[in-house]
Amino acid sequence: MAKRPIVFIDRDGTLNKEAGYINHIDNFQLYPFVYQAIRLLNHFNILSVVITNQAGIGRGYFTESFLKYVHNKMFSMLKKNGAFIDGLYYCPHHPSSKLAEYAVECDCRKPKTKMLEKALEEFSPEVDRKKIYVIGDKFSDIKMGSNFGCRTVMVKTGYGKGELMSKDNDSPKPSKIENNFLSAVLWIIRDLNLNVF
Prior knowledge:
By secondary structure, the chain is of the alpha/beta class. It has 7 helices and 6 strands; from the N terminus they run E-H-E-H-H-E-H-E-H-E-H-E-H. The chain has one domain (4-192): Rossmann fold. It has a 6-stranded parallel beta sheet, with helices on both faces.
């Protein structure tokens, strides 16, 4: 079996428009360029896996069943546009949660790497571990990728522009800065020496 590159993708601000804690389905809107970007990953046999912090669950803003409803909407929208993602992992925890099951110092909340580890366990031995990328709009995404030895791409959508303007000197530098998820995917394809056309 040929080894495949894998791209770990942040959700809010990267795939969908940043809207704070999304506690109503109408607030979940994918960027229009996402479909083409995911189709490109599918076309080039690159695994696409969403990695997302969802502390709104722990903080009581919405339930895990509602989050599943949102993600089913996302899967449906992608499918209608000829695209699919290979996996999705989320962290529901937050230390300030009033719900004991979520009020933990977990190993999965970004920038920690447990979600990446779980994904690689699931997709191994399919993954080429020398070709792992992370795309996100926050330095927590970049730090997670850096902690795991990934190539990282920071996008300017969502919180991206603001994060870049107020960059903490202790934050890791992304491998590349791009305008949005589509241009990030195109950069990854070029970085992998694949022919877009």
